[in-house]
Structures are given as C-alpha cells and as structure tokens.
Amino acid sequence: QVQLVESGGGLVQAGGSLRLSCAASGLTFSSYTMGWFRQAPGKEREFVAAISWWGGNTYYAESVKGQFTISRDNAKNTVYLQMNSLKPEDTAVYYCAAGRLFGVPGTGNYDYWGQGTQVTVSS
Questions:
Q1: Burial of residue 89 (number of CB atoms within 10 Å: 0-12, 13-18, 19+)
Q2: Which of 8, 26, 72, 100 is 20 to 30 A from 14 via CA?
C-alpha cells in the first residue's frame, strides 16, 4: 500500500520560512518524479514544484521560482520543500505526489497523493 505522509506545515508570519517533508512508503521511491501541489480555499489544486527521480532536475511554478526549493533524499524515501519569504498568498494545503513524467505539471501525471499539510501565513 502506497503512503505519502506530509509534515512540517503550520502557522508562520509573512517573511518566515517553513520546510515541508513528505515520507513515502510502499513504492519504489527512486523511480518516481515527486511533486508538490497546493490548494487554497475556493481554488483549484495547483502545481508548485517537481523533482526528477534522480534529483538532478527541478521544475517550479513561476509564482514560487526563487522562493521555494524542492529536494529529495532517495535513501530516506523523502522529498522536501523549503519555503522562504512566505507571503499570505502562499496559504494553502500543500500536497506531495508521486508521478511518472518529469516536466508534466498536471495533476493527471501523478498517481499517488498524500493527505496534505496546512500552511498558513499571517500578515
């Protein structure tokens, strides 16, 4: 049974930082592109960042480029999202997902999803 479990969310003031983690089990982690998505209240789920199976390639939404950094540790079956200079508009539930193709940001590319972790940025 595949499980993706996010952690690290919380309440932070604008300008602060958070590091999200996603621990994976039940799949060959090193074979998957891993992605982060977010969903704000009343909005559709949107792509945030992705990292290739070997970690050598990364891909970001324009809205977070230079602000967020995705990384992975295949030995720990874990993917991370370092979020800096957080803004109130970054408030959302953040989801990690395991997908097949790198560079394809649509949700349909991702086979497995975590339950999400709430990130709230106060102004």
A1: exposed
A2: 72
